[in-house]
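User: Fold this; tokens only.

Assistant: Input:
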Amino acid sequence: MAVVLWLLPRVAINIPLWGLIIMMIALGVYNYRNYRLSKKALVKKPMISPDIGSRGRTTTPISPKGYVRVNGELWRASSSSTIDAGEEIAIVGIEGMTLLIRPIEKDNHTRKDDAFSG
């Protein structure tokens, strides 16, 4: 407000002090109302979210945060380990709008049937 009081008269704009006070109060009320309306939307749980155990694929490296694609939707994700882009993941939890994920281990083991045949 001090900048407005100092700067506006230099460019030949004279607004009375009471006018500035009313404008600042109106701006404060407007910002408070928008904050209250937005806060409800930000803390609301998603209506359609992937289930725990769902699988997807990373679109960016996860270290510790990044993005994954699950059921065709892009989600923000977080993991306790580093995961490269393009890796398959499983959802282990949901925290707000962020998926908690873990990498799916690749199965390099031979099947038991093949190991014992022979």
